[in-house]
Fold:
Amino acid sequence: MYRINTSIDVPIYTQLVDEIKSEIISGALVFGAKLPTVRELSAQCGVAPGTVMRVYEQLEQMGLAEKKQGKGTFVCYRQADELSRKDKAMAAIDAMLNTLDDLNFSESERNIYLNLKLREHAAGDHGLQLAVIECNNEILYQISEQLRGTSNVSVYAYQLDDIRSYPYQLPEDLDLIIVSASHAEELYQILPSSSKMVKAVLSLTTQSFTKIARISKGSHVGIMCQSMRFGELLVSAAKELCDDATIGEPALFTDDVEAYLSQVTTLLVPRSYERYCGAECAAKIRKYAEDHTVIQCEYRIDGGSMIYLEDRMRKLGK
Structure:
């Protein structure tokens, strides 16, 4: 049974294409398997027959399925050794997430269990075990990626709200826990392993800083993001760096994107914004970027904090 989520900004037919493609790539639907008829799939998913026809047409164009006159639509894709590692990985992840959805796990629970299994999988690696705690997904991802660029470390990301709810989910064998300076005082009070904490100052990358500072006078600057906290940080940065520019209130990717973009001449978004928004929202931003300035903004652990962190890592001797 395919699941349709009407609360996200992704067209229904795209969701269906992605789900069926995932089953085909993963091998759950093998070569020669017959897909449901248009009428059957329409009834199962509660969508119009025309939507299902569009899905099957898209699968045909992708070389995954073929229509046989009078017989139906069949999988025509054969598994191949040269199948990209990325496609295999994405298909496996989709299947796992679908299973967790069927078991009614919340997003918070999924994150906890995934982090635990990642740690178990890395148990044979004697590198450093680092945790990052942050209040918004944008910075959590950006800082985690920065730390993963350091050799011989495993990095596990935790949402601040999850740690507030249950601080003991952090494994005892972590080597270091990296927190931003703005949350350090609170976490010193609630973490059982606060002696492992490293307080880090976060700052805009030089590239982000420079691009924001060069925004033209008289510009109407908009900010779109996944979390309002990240939006507030960019508002503060823009007001400090931009002379004679109008800085608008931040909007979320789930808001009316077209209406918001029509009111601004420059847009600030998190780096790799596509990972935080649906395909349709990303397409609208890319279209907007054809005639306007879009600045992808990134925060990182600043130089002084990174030197201190690296020193702590060296002293651990792993």
Observations:
- The first strand starts at residue 65 and ends at 68.
- DSSP finds 13 helices and 13 strands in the chain.
